[in-house]
Amino acid sequence: MRRVPGASPHRRSRTSNQSGAVDESDFRLRDIAVAAYGPSVLFGLAEGAMLPIITLSAIERGASISVAAFIAALIGIGSILTNIPSGMLATRIGERLSMVVAAAVSAIGLIFCILPFGLWVYGTGVFLIGAASSVFSLARQSYLTEMVPVGMRARALSTLGGSMRVGIFVGPFIGAGFMHFFGLASAYVVALVAVLGAGGIAYGVPDLDSRAHDRAADASVTTIGMLRRYWHVFLTLGTGIVLLSAIRQTRQIVIPLWAHHIGLSSASASMIYGIAGAIDAATFYPAGKVMDRYGRRAVAVPCTALMGVSFLLMPLSHGFTTLILVSLLMGMSNGIGSGIVMTLGADVSPSVGRPTFLGLWRELADAGTGIGPVILSAVTAVWTLGGGIVVSGVVGFAAAAALWRWIPGQRASRTERAPSPSEPGALRE
């Protein structure tokens, strides 16, 4: 990237071709690795360090089991309630500053979790962390979508998803190490240091001149206007995203549940879950390369279909060995879909009003994460756990069918489908 004469250290332009897109021949993903993925690894590490102990901390402060479960759910609630405002914030102040704000808010939330105050203060801290995570994720996705050439978009976004997973995978181990020596609250200190590091890196990355030029046009885009113009995309491809997110969230629940159902110890269940997570975190880059080369369907459909197969096979497993084999298939199939939700959102989002569109896109994904466990719970209540897992597998096949039907046939790696800047007027209320 070249420096713009007279610009501040935070304002740089991208190497562009005549069409205004980033020139792929002059771009190397490793050149932006630390700035692009360092904050994501650290944010993921922070979440990984604190997520396993939220309920334990709540109970330690006097919560009942049901209240502790609700406090743990505040992470997701904070994200859902903040997705659309996140798009508005990124539109007004830019992606870079939005990431800095997210790190600051997350740090405040972690301080609330560290301080020895009551349950309400602790719950507020957890909610703030969930809200900050939504702001950070949307801003990072929007930033990379603009920064990276279209032909490398899937690799960039799958690596973004993978870097977050690596952090979430490593975080619990680092947190456990500190807790062993310094107690429960030290895991939040680890998370606090990580988010401050993420905020520091985000502050140092360059702004994008292209977004600065589009800022006035972005400001004219409203959420209602975006829904009116792109309702068909949200209704069709968005349905596939909801179903994909549903089975992804359910997969995190069924492994420990089925392990307990067949009589495995908690240690065995945790080992199986961890090994599946390692396979999941290790397959993100090849997935992005396949998407860029062969199109989004080449990854999205196998990802969801194989997850469906793994769900159907799980009730047939009756011991450690068979369950770990099924879990490995489940982890691998989810891993090859790393970044698919972000990539598809970037592909179908307009160039003007992109943060607003992505906020709505994330809302669909979060809706799916809420629906998946509800389906499993409801079917299990009226049938059996095995029946609930089978029905959840059918959700995976439905996701594969929806994504096959509605993913645009023309590869985004060859043609940018975003509307021209002349369109923003059509998006106003």
Automatic annotation (TrEMBL):
<keyword id="KW-1133">Transmembrane helix</keyword>
<keyword id="KW-0812">Transmembrane</keyword>
<keyword id="KW-1003">Cell membrane</keyword>
<dbReference type="InterPro" id="IPR005829">
    <property type="entry name" value="Sugar_transporter_CS"/>
</dbReference>
<feature type="transmembrane region" description="Helical">
    <location>
        <begin position="267"/>
        <end position="287"/>
    </location>
</feature>
<feature type="transmembrane region" description="Helical">
    <location>
        <begin position="65"/>
        <end position="85"/>
    </location>
</feature>
<feature type="transmembrane region" description="Helical">
    <location>
        <begin position="156"/>
        <end position="179"/>
    </location>
</feature>
<feature type="domain" description="Major facilitator superfamily (MFS) profile">
    <location>
        <begin position="32"/>
        <end position="411"/>
    </location>
</feature>
<feature type="transmembrane region" description="Helical">
    <location>
        <begin position="185"/>
        <end position="205"/>
    </location>
</feature>
<feature type="transmembrane region" description="Helical">
    <location>
        <begin position="34"/>
        <end position="59"/>
    </location>
</feature>
<feature type="region of interest" description="Disordered">
    <location>
        <begin position="1"/>
        <end position="22"/>
    </location>
</feature>
<keyword id="KW-0813">Transport</keyword>
<dbReference type="InterPro" id="IPR050171">
    <property type="entry name" value="MFS_Transporters"/>
</dbReference>
<feature type="transmembrane region" description="Helical">
    <location>
        <begin position="389"/>
        <end position="407"/>
    </location>
</feature>
<dbReference type="Pfam" id="PF07690">
    <property type="entry name" value="MFS_1"/>
</dbReference>
<dbReference type="InterPro" id="IPR020846">
    <property type="entry name" value="MFS_dom"/>
</dbReference>
<feature type="transmembrane region" description="Helical">
    <location>
        <begin position="230"/>
        <end position="247"/>
    </location>
</feature>
<feature type="transmembrane region" description="Helical">
    <location>
        <begin position="323"/>
        <end position="344"/>
    </location>
</feature>
<keyword id="KW-0472">Membrane</keyword>
<feature type="transmembrane region" description="Helical">
    <location>
        <begin position="299"/>
        <end position="317"/>
    </location>
</feature>
<feature type="compositionally biased region" description="Basic residues">
    <location>
        <begin position="1"/>
        <end position="14"/>
    </location>
</feature>
<dbReference type="InterPro" id="IPR036259">
    <property type="entry name" value="MFS_trans_sf"/>
</dbReference>
<protein>
    <submittedName>
        <fullName>MFS transporter</fullName>
    </submittedName>
</protein>
<dbReference type="InterPro" id="IPR011701">
    <property type="entry name" value="MFS"/>
</dbReference>
<feature type="transmembrane region" description="Helical">
    <location>
        <begin position="97"/>
        <end position="119"/>
    </location>
</feature>
